[in-house]
Every structure is written in structure tokens, then in C-alpha cells.
Design goal:
Largest sheet: 8 strands, mixed
CATH class of one domain: Alpha Beta
Number of helices: 11
Strand order of the largest sheet: 6-5-3-4-7-8-16-17
Strand content: 15-25%
Number of strands: 18
Length: 399
């Protein structure tokens, strides 16, 4: 396992330069093309003063430019902050104030909203994806200078719980991403360069920037990115590209199962169909099983990498994944009576480094610096020696 996402990208560029890295509904970007394009955008970021530890925001619909902007940020050691493109100026401004980006990319439709946010007070540079990213495609660019990234450097801030309350910024590090990918590779075996991920969810989510883009780059696979969720098109891509990984809430699988012709589809190449966010109804399981697909219910939260446990194909509740630790929290003692309830804690190398400058958890803001070593964010501690473990915030109830 490589130390960082950029290390992995560099390796695959050397070994399989012509292998597809991202396929946006037929617009294919190879590893070599992605690497060179991102080098050009990294130079643009440096030219606007962005540096290692800065936050770089992205607002826009799913696109190759979104992916390249993220990789460019990682190449200079910056932290990617994906913002919900559906947010209004007031909602977006709250997240900008929370993570204090140095630069925010926006597609043409969202530049007016970004300008409105900038006028309201936060200081950051606005760059159009068309002008700063699209224009750099196909050019000759010098490689981005190496800066000595460390596995515990943060890579992304993913905002979560925005549908039920104030969004929290969850900090992902290179080490956390490596742990998540290790878990997934053991849960469902996929050969080298055979990972094919279908992504229909937004890039700003953990499903997009972490489980989609980062996982594909770390494992040398291909992310089949869709502009949005269109069930008939999703079924086509699942079959034509022989997708190996498709994850998301049950509604995605339900709507695809209603597409005419689904009952004749052969999908036994889909080895990873992990479903979360809601309970998977038995009738939905019964629709997909004849297609050669076992929908596996997962349990988890963004702060723990998304997956704490996943059901086996045989239907057990599941055990903690390999990079996970789960059990009664220190306050509840070492065991729980059968049939009883107890608070439990989840920890391990796939757990988050903390939350980004969250007042709710007592962060000390540093208004004169946008640098984001993990120390600049709110560490979640578990009483262990390392400040980068995230345990008490990752709690639930186990029966």
C-alpha cells in the first residue's frame, strides 16, 4: 500500500500509463493524462498562493474538471473541500467560514454564488473550472515539485449530517484512506487494475472524493463517473463496463431494478454492492440475487471511513472490518449481556483524524492561518497516545 494517494498515482502512471483512470460517460482520461493535466492545474494553484496545508474548495457538478482539481490540490499538499453545489450562498458561506479555503474552484453555474459568498466577508480566491482547469487539458506541463507528503497529512474534508443539522467537516488523511481501501480490498477481492467503480452520487460526498476517486487511484482502477443518476444509463454502464463496485443507498438499487430489461441483465461481475444509509428491504434483495448480485447491508458513518461492519453474503450481521476496532466504549465496561444494550466505540486506522475547526467540539480557530496540519483541526481522541485516533465521536448503540 502506498503512503499517499499521490504516491499511488505516480506508481500507476509509471506502470500502466494508458490505463483509464476516470471515464466520464465516454470521455476517458488515462493515468498519464490525468497526471499531466493535474500538474498544470497544480501550477495554477501555486500561482495563486496556495501551498501545502491550505484548503482548496470545489463547487460544481460531477465532471473531469472536478477530479483534476482535486488531484492538483493533492499534488501541492493541499486539502480538498468539496462543497454541495445545491447550497445557497448563506449555506455555502457557513462552510467556507468553517474551513477557510485559500482557493475555491467553481463551474460556470456556481461562480455567481461564490462571488456572493466572497463579498460577504471570507477571504479566498475564486477560480473558474473552465478557465483554470479545462484550459489546461492536453497541454505540456512540468511535473509538480515533490514536497514530502506524510501518510498522516490530511487530504480531504468531507461535510456530513447536513440533512439533519449543521454539517460537520470530517478530516480524511492518506493513512485513513489507505485503511479504508485495505478493508474494501479484503472484503471483496478485485485483481490489480480490475477495479471498476460506478459513481452516480455527487463528487463532494465521501462516496465521490474518497470511495470513488481516491479508491480508484490507490488501487489502479477506473472510476466510471456519471454526471448524475439516470437509472437506465446506470444499468447500461453496469453491464457494458462490467462494473465491479457500485455502492450507495437502497433507492439507487431500487430505481435501477425498475428499468425495463433489468430482469434479463447479467451482473455477476458486480462483486461489491454494499448498501447503506437505510435498511435494505427483503424484496429488493430478491430482485438483485437472480442477477448474480448479493446486496450487503453496511453499517457505519463518515467519521469511521463509512463502513464499520458489512453483512456477509450469507446474511450474518457481520464483524468489524480489518482496519476497524469495535466494541463497548470504555465507559460501558468490557462486556454486554446477551439481549442488552450498551454504547460502543469504533476506532482503527480507517477512523478520521478529527473534525475541521468545529466549534461544537471545542476547536481553537487560527484566523491568521489556513494551514491544515491535523493539529489545525479538532482532534478526536480516544485516550490513546496518538492524537489522530477518532473514537468517542464514533459511537452508537449495539444490541
Amino acid at each position: 500500500m502506498s503512503g499517499t494517494v499521490v504516491d499511488a498515482l505516480t506508481w500507476w502512471v509509471r506502470t500502466v500509463p494508458d490505463h483509464p483512470a476516470v471515464d466520464l460517460d465516454g470521455d476517458v482520461l488515462t493515468y498519464a493524462e490525468l497526471d499531466t493535466w493535474a500538474d498544470g492545474v497544480a501550477a495554477v494553484l501555486r500561482g495563486h498562493g496556495a501551498a501545502r496545508g491550505d484548503r482548496v474548495g470545489i463547487v460544481g457538478t460531477n465532471s473531469l474538471e472536478w477530479c483534476v482539481a482535486a488531484v492538483a490540490a493533492w499534488k501541492i499538499g493541499a486539502v480538498v473541500c468539496g462543497f454541495n453545489q445545491r447550497f445557497l450562498a448563506a449555506e455555502l458561506g457557513a462552510l467556507v467560514s468553517l474551513c477557510e479555503p485559500a482557493v475555491v474552484f467553481g463551474d460556470a453555474a456556481h461562480l455567481p454564488v461564490l462571488e456572493e459568498v466572497r463579498r460577504s466577508g471570507p477571504e479566498f480566491t475564486v477560480l473558474g473550472l473552465d478557465d483554470a482547469v479545462t484550459a489546461a487539458r492536453g497541454g505540456e506541463h512540468d511535473p509538480a515539485p515533490a514536497f514530502g507528503a506524510e501518510p498522516d497529512d490530511p487530504t480531504s474534508i468531507v461535510f456530513t449530517s447536513g440533512t439533519t443539522g449543521t454539517p460537520k467537516g470530517v478530516v480524511f488523511t492518506h493513512r485513513m484512506i489507505a485503511g479504508i481501501m485495505h478493508e474494501w480490498s479484503l472484503g471483496e477481492r478485485v485483481g490489480p487494475n480490475d477495479l471498476r467503480v460506478l459513481l452516480v452520487l455527487p463528487m463532494f460526498t465521501a462516496a465521490g472524493v474518497v470511495w470513488g476517486l481516491s479508491r480508484s487511484l490507490v488501487q489502479g482502477g477506473t472510476m466510471y463517473l456519471q454526471p448524475g443518476f439516470d437509472p437506465p444509463r446506470a444499468l447500461e454502464v453496469l453491464q457494458e463496463a462490467r462494473i465491479t463496485t457500485f455502492t450507495g443507498p437502497p433507492i439507487l438499487f431500487e430505481q435501477i431494478s425498475r428499468v425495463p430489461g433489468f430482469e434479463r441483465a447479467r451482473l455477476d461481475h458486480l462483486t461489491t454492492a454494499w448498501v447503506g444509509g437505510a435498511r435494505v428491504p427483503v424484496p429488493l434483495l430478491e430482485k438483485w440475487r437472480p442477477r448474480g448480485v448479493a446486496l450487503r447491508q453496511l453499517y457505519g458513518q463518515t467519521e469511521i471511513g463509512g463502513t464499520a461492519t458489512a453483512m456477509s453474503a450469507e446474511g450474518r450481521c457481520g464483524i468489524p472490518t480489518s482496519a476497524a476496532g469495535a466494541g463497548p466504549s470504555p465507559a460501558s465496561g468490557s462486556s454486554t449481556p446477551t439481549g442488552g444494550t450498551a454504547p460502543w466505540a469504533r476506532s482503527g486506522r480507517s477512523s478520521c483524524a478529527g473534525r475541521a475547526c468545529s466549534p461544537a467540539t471545542g476547536a481553537t480557530r487560527r484566523p491568521r492561518s489556513r494551514r491544515c496540519g491535523v493539529a489545525g483541526c479538532t482532534p478526536a481522541t480516544s485516550g490513546r497516545s496518538t492524537p489522530r485516533a477518532c473514537s468517542p465521536t464514533s459511537t452508537g448503540w449495539a444490541r
